[in-house]
Amino acid sequence: MSVHKNLIRLKAATQEYDWGKSGSASLAARLGTNAIGHAFQIDENKSYAEIWMGTHPNGPAHLFDDPSTSLLSLVSSDPPFYLGDALRKWRSTVHIPYLLKVLSIRKALPLQAHPDKGLAEQLHLKDPSNFVDSNHKPEIAVAIGEPLKATNTGAESDYVHVGDEDTAFTGFVGFRPLEDIKCFLQMVPELAHAIGDATLVASFTQNPSTGTLKQVYGTLLRRGVEARDEVASVISKLEQRIKKGGSFGVPDGDELARLVLKVNAQYPGDAGVLATTFFMNFAKLKKGEGIYIGADEVHAYLEGDIIECMATSDNVVNAAFDAPESLASQVKTFVDMLTYTARPVSHWALPREAYPHSREGRTSKYDPPLEEFVVLGTTLDSKSAKVERLGAVGGPTIGIVTKGKARITVSRDHEQLELDEGGVVFIPPGNEIHVELLEGRGAEGAGEVWWSCFGA
């Protein structure tokens, strides 16, 4: 019998940010009792934004049955056993190579980008208090919530729904095609007024390029900090024009108008209202759909519940939807770091694929173009699909039950745990995993488990 445990329940970490959903409306909060422990009590006046599952120092996981012991400490006690192929890939660290999260989003996150490795190393050396690690942070997001329109029935009277009937997550991702941005600059006069440089706007509309896009976008964001009142006045006039029935005269104009109203209600007068709505793609995901955000790519998630996974890092550079005094030192770095990839929103789509190591066909794979992780989603139901079996992988696995109650068993020593919604587990390499749904939820008796792993 092994001297090591092969199925370890984790105590995750929570993060409270203003953009998170409040109280029990937050999935992150509802999962908290089992993810954190019974000491976790939901405060309806707090915003619960994220659950973290990994070894990053800004929110490290600990052992559920021994909260004084961190997951990093456990892994450090025998890295070859707990990391397997991940240790052979990255010999200089004993961190889990990924950070798995649940996000519950009420309003837009800051307009942001995550640095590549080279920039991350520079930022960490220059400002280690704000950039606590030197790693890159490419990430994926998968929608796991119910349709927004249904979940917001009876919400506050000023709630603005933007999306389709089955949209479960919305966010701004990457730049729109250059011709679309050109059209908006020509047809929405307030946009050029906010930029405040007619010659620069004309240079873009006459010959759209990523170079002139950088100049136009950077000017708008800098004015959002340095001439905030002027930009806010322009946005206010745009809002009033929309409310009086004014039209943009562009494709999807009605949706754009609703986005302006929605985002401006969240961050009144912020340059990000224009920098997202008219420059960036608006992603609308159904439950189970995903997107991939590479390093140095602009994004701002807007609404919904998601599984998020990234390389182990907490590095972020913001440029809007935050206090001007905080943004002043970040905007130049932000503008300089972006890739300015300008494509349709489909460019950022991450396909859901069949997982070849799924023995019962109940698990999907989300495989981004990077080395650190693959995300898996296991969907069960109590009527016809109560069991899934997953083949062993060469690196560490972390999983969280997001719906229902499940029994998880691993092949080594046949260790098992029964976990209700929010239960989190760590599984060392080389273990086959058996999942049995004990109690389903909802009319369909559904169960869901989300995993991140290396070596799948």
Task: Describe this structure as you would to a colleague.
The chain has 456 residues and is α+β, with helices and mostly antiparallel strands. The protein has 16 helices and 26 strands. The strands form five sheets. A nine-stranded antiparallel β-sheet has the order 7-6-1-24-21-26-19-18-17. Strands 2, 5, 8, 10, 11, 12, 13, 14 and 16 form a nine-stranded antiparallel β-sheet that branches. A hairpin with a 7-residue loop joins strand 18 (363-366) and strand 19. Helix 10 (198-206) runs antiparallel to helix 11. The chain is globular, with a radius of gyration of 23 Å. 50% of the residues are buried.
Gist of the model:
Helix content is 29%, strand content 29%. It is built from 16 helices and 26 strands.
Produce the secondary structure layout.
Blueprint: E1 8-11, E2 13-15, E3 21-22, H1 27-30, H2 32-36, E4 47-48, E5 50-53, E6 62-63, E7 66-70, H3 71-77, H4 79-83, H5 85-89, E8 98-105, E9 111-113, H6 117-126, E10 139-143, H7 148-151, E11 167-175, H8 178-187, H9 189-195, H10 198-206, H11 210-226, H12 228-243, H13 253-266, H14 272-277, E12 280-286, E13 290-293, E14 299-311, E15 317-320, H15 324-327, H16 331-337, E16 349-350, E17 353-354, E18 363-366, E19 374-381, E20 387-390, E21 397-403, E22 405-410, E23 416-419, E24 424-427, E25 433-439, E26 446-453
Antiparallel strand pairs: 1-6, 1-24, 2-5, 3-4, 5-8, 6-7, 8-14, 9-15, 10-13, 10-14, 11-12, 11-14, 13-16, 17-18, 18-19, 19-26, 20-25, 21-24, 21-26, 22-23, 22-25
